[in-house]
Write a structure and sequence with these properties.
Elements: E1 2-6, E2 26-30, H1 40-50, E3 54-57, H2 64-69, H3 71-92, E4 96-101, H4 124-139, E5 143-148, E6 151-152, H5 159-167, E7 172-176, E8 180-181, E9 184-185, H6 186-201, E10 209-212, E11 219-220, H7 221-234, E12 243-247, H8 267-272, H9 280-292
Parallel strand pairs: 1-2, 1-3, 3-4, 4-5, 5-10, 6-9, 7-12
Antiparallel strand pairs: 8-11
Length: about 290
């Protein structure tokens, strides 16, 4: 049995290369250069060439501010491209696992968001991801949509690596303290998606639909940054103290509006799957240890 993975050059996509899937599963992980999901011909050729039993889609346009400047590209990848995959999976009679985001919510409620709560994306990125979700639901019954948040890891661009870069040259950094979410290690997302795929292809009963999977505990960008600098100092990645000054989101200028409290409720995941939710602090330590050895 074979899993076709898209977006193999992204944060989560690159983590699959470090995993050993359970036998008799084999993976084919394709980068954007190898498979552009916005091109229907390329999608068709990939399905014919690889003959997958299941598809995991990690291909996405993830630049939140960039999406405001180039909405056409964001919707092409996050909505049209996802619809191409959903149609191809339907025609091939195979399931699709799709990685989505907490940005489908507006973050205005105090309680964590469940899978059935109303969506209200604030920006192009969130809207394009929501349209991708809806395309899957409209074309393919056998699907699992996994929403996650604040993904970080050794590969690609993320908040942790941005803090390390800034911290090496500064002694004080201003970070938003009134936005809350759930940092999630990219490695844990990849492991969870492979575990889900294994359940599906092994014939285990799966309740199709949408699930939330993210790290614990919830925190703010400001508190997250403080822990990053604490651990980075312990690993010798930053050789001086960095003061993290708390500011409000209104004091931070960016193109895209982002949710203030996009904490995800993962109770449905825990009830349904025997796949544990990750704790982000030890994962952050592991990430920084790996970076220190590079």
């Amino acid at each position: 049995m074979k899993i076709l993975i898209t977006g193999a050059n992204g944060q989560v996509g690159r983590e699959f290369a470090r995993l050993t899937p359970p036998n008799p599963i084999h993976t084919s992980a394709l980068t954007r250069d190898q498979l552009d999901i916005t091109d229907t011909d390329e999608v068709s050729e990939a399905f014919v060439g690889h003959q997958p039993s299941i598809v995991i889609n990690c291909a996405a346009y993830t630049m939140v501010d960039g999406a405001e400047e180039d909405p056409e590209r964001a919707f092409a990848v996050n909505a049209v491209g996802v619809e191409n995959l959903a149609r191809a999976c339907r025609d091939a009679g195979i399931p699709l696992l799709h990685l989505s985001t907490d940005y489908v919510f507006d973050g205005t409620r105090d309680a964590p968001y469940g899978e059935n709560d109303s969506v209200a994306p604030l920006g192009v990125y969130g809207r394009s991801k929501w349209e991708g979700e809806e395309a899957i639901r409209g074309h393919l019954e056998n699907h699992l949509i996994v929403r996650s948040s604040w993904i970080f890891g050794v590969h690609g661009h993320n908040f942790v690596k941005k803090m390390l870069l800034l911290g090496r040259n500064r002694t004080k950094i201003k970070i938003v303290a009134n936005q809350f979410g759930c940092p999630t290690p990219a490695s844990a997302v990849a492991e969870a998606l492979i575990a889900l795929a294994h359940k599906v292809v092994s014939g285990a009963g799966v309740d199709w639909g949408t699930y939330h999977f993210c790290g614990r505990p919830p925190t703010s960008w400001h508190a997250f940054a403080e822990v990053i600098f604490e651990y980075a100092g312990e690993r010798g990645l930053i050789d001086h103290p960095v003061v993290v000054q708390a500011i409000k989101s209104s004091e931070y200028s960016r193109l895209a509006r982002t949710p203030a409290k996009a904490v995800l409720d993962c109770a449905k995941w825990s009830r349904t799957f025997d796949i544990p939710l990750p704790s982000w602090q030890p994962a952050l330590k592991s990430m920084l240890a790996e970076i220190s050895l590079q």
